[in-house]
Amino acid sequence: MSTEQGAAKPRTRKLRTWTAFGELGRRPTEYEVLTHGMNHTLRPTPLELGPEVLGNRWLREHRDAISLRVPDWDAFRDPDAVTYGSYVAMQDDQETYVEGLLERFDREDHDAGLSEEALQRLALCVTPTRYLAHAQQMLSAYLQQLAPGSYLATCATFQTADQLRRVQLVAYRTTQLQRTHPSRAFATGERAVWEQHPLWQPMREAAEHALITYDWDQAFVATQLVFKPLADMLLLQQSALELSTAGCTLDALIADNLWRDSERSQRWTTVLLRMLVEAGPENREVLQRYLTSWVPRGQAMVEAGSQLLAASTGRAQTQIAEAVRAGWRSLVEPAGLSVDPV
Amino acid sequence: MLLNRDDWYDISRDLDWTLSYVDEEVAFPQCWTGKRAIPDEAWQAWDEPFRVSYRDYVRVQREKESGVKAVGDAMLRAGVYQKLDPAHVAAAHLHMGTTCMVEYMAVTMQSRFCRFAPTPRWRNLGVFGMLDETRHTQLDLRFSHDLLRFDPRFDWAQKAFHTNEWGVLAVKNFFDDIMLSSDCVEAALATSLTVEHGFTNIQFVALAADAMAAGDVNWSNLLSSIQTDEARHAQQGFPTLQVLMEHDPQRAQQAIDVAFWRSTRLFQTLTGPAMDYYTPLDQRKMSFKEFMLEWVVNHHERILADYGLSKPWYWDKFLHSLENGHHAMHLGLWFWRPTLFWKPNAGVSKAEREWLNEKYPTWEENWGGYWDQIIANINAGRMDLTLPETLPALCNVTQLPLGSAMSRHDLEPAVSVYEGRTYQFDSDISKWCFDLDPARYAGHMNVVDRFIAGQIQPMSLAGGLEWMGLTPDVMGDDAYGYRWAAEYAPAMAD
Lengths: 342, 494
Prior knowledge:
The complex is a heterodimer of chains A (342) and B (494).
Chain A: H1 30-33, H2 54-64, H3 84-107, H4 116-126, H5 129-146, H6 150-180, H7 190-196, H8 201-211, H9 216-245, H10 249-279, H11 281-309, H12 317-332
Chain B: H1 5-12, H2 24-27, H3 30-33, H4 54-78, H5 86-116, H6 120-147, H7 156-159, H8 166-180, H9 184-213, H10 217-233, H11 237-247, H12 249-270, H13 272-278, H14 288-307, H15 315-335, H16 350-359, H17 363-379, E1 414-418, E2 421-425, H18 428-436, H19 438-441, H20 447-452, H21 461-467, H22 490-493
Antiparallel strand pairs in B: 1-2
């Protein structure tokens, strides 16, 4: 058989990029090439199945009937333009840094030298966070699976992975503390703290309510504007400061590092908020309505969380709470949203 | 003290708590968890052997990414693609158009595991699945985008699932069902265990070997790299099956038997023609049947035996189909080539035919006559007779043509009536799938149902092609421009 005709015979149309970009007017970035228009279910009957199967009913009810409206969800871009390749490279660097911290502090026998107060603080504010991070992991995964576009879904994918990173780092630290201080309840006592400690309950209550918030737009507000940013501001950003004061230097540095992941989450959230409110004033009303319904839970998280963090050696509870509220406001106010109690 | 992964791993999976502010049944609805009557304690036995740490994952995957990219860049610079055999290239078009979006769908299925799987162990492993599938999507997209300037058919890596091309709809129908509309248990048995752990070996191991033989180092390398990830996250099926075998073996048997048949039919469409017809003869490693027997059938039989499951009731029919189904599909694909976005190779030159008859002793008897007629028409200049004027009747489960599952003699109708509507099937196995759970398939309209209902206008083949999104620059035609038929022409035969 003749094979002289090569695969690349001249053609009339030479494509430079996906036709799906239409008239982009510029070369798409690698991030765009690898992320654009990959949700095939954005059609009247989302899945290629009977209209009444579970998948179609769920998407119709919880994604396609949402109140937020934008002309094109795939107009959204992640400001960090994260691709799989850049994600694993970036996070490998971060994990290398944390690995270095673990080795350095291990050489210095850091955990053996922790004070009573420091150990209590770790048992109260750090090791129980594996439950919190797992809740955030589940919520991030939900945002991915119902996302009305692949740019958004991909942000949620990497956010889900960030949460597992945190779960595993917390488990690592919990085990180290357990081995150095076997008489304490590290690794065994966290569930009770998470389930029963009064100052953890507003956090858990918000997590559980976010889990049953299935409409995508409400889930976005619950997770990205309330539960996750507040929990991270409290238990990573503010906690790092308090841990440092209490002599938990290693955990303060790890929390600082994990906070970088949270900042990345807030960056894409901010950009999405801007896109939504620019798409129409009714979107701002919708967002504000959902946010307002979540403000009491958020305020309760801030109140209780700041009490959890406040210690005699550190800042006053009100100072911590005010810092978190300021962070919360700076997340939502650029989009014209308010988190003031009604 | 510094720790090994096993020191802390179990704590990282000890994440369940008792919900008290909301109803657990609402937060973890049965429709997605798939727990049904299986007690909560049973899921504590769910375990996976890979025990992946995030730290190791990002390190190893970063290295893999660099490796694949380096090979890809080198091959592009070397102009390897431009030198490839056009029949082999068709296999790449077919693969990218029908697989890239499935990888992306798998991100979403894994994300369902992360949110709704009945144990945090599984929910955590799903995260690596989400990342892996994101990788595979982006690898396929980068590979295809790099080659766009040589062939607009690579646009279909991104575009195919936004069209109504009938083959794509068949793929979409299957994966929308088992990935995006099934509960976690069903999805793990059908997708992780049956498709990923079994059938994708054909796509990613056999096709990788064929691609390497064809000189397509870049694609071969990409397929092999993907397979290293599949081997990890496909593990989610086994612990799920283990739990099912303790508590609901009947459900496991049924889910796997349905998925095995539907996978067979799909791979007869996607991989069978690529291996036995598109891969240039001197580069073929094994026939599709041989590969299926060695990598899928033996493997599947072993899993069934290991877990105490029976072979599906249709096993003998399956083996009969293995001898025939992909030849029927290939004949149909080639004949309806304007409905494809790749250029199929007929693959029936005299030498190829000899190979086919050696590998499939009943090939000539079943399929030779059809091809002889096609060849005669080509050589008589009657190209019109080699092209379709209508659409074939399609199965309401597999979405594939009636008559394409078995030999040419197996044409007895398989029909069910459900809620007043008549559904047709390519085999009594597909009918059996439908009858088990009619609501899962009912209400869907296949391409021909839509055509008859007047949803495709104008009601002609041309209207159908337009509806399918097939533009002239990608529309399928014979890969070699029919030159292979010349050796059969009377003048040459003498």
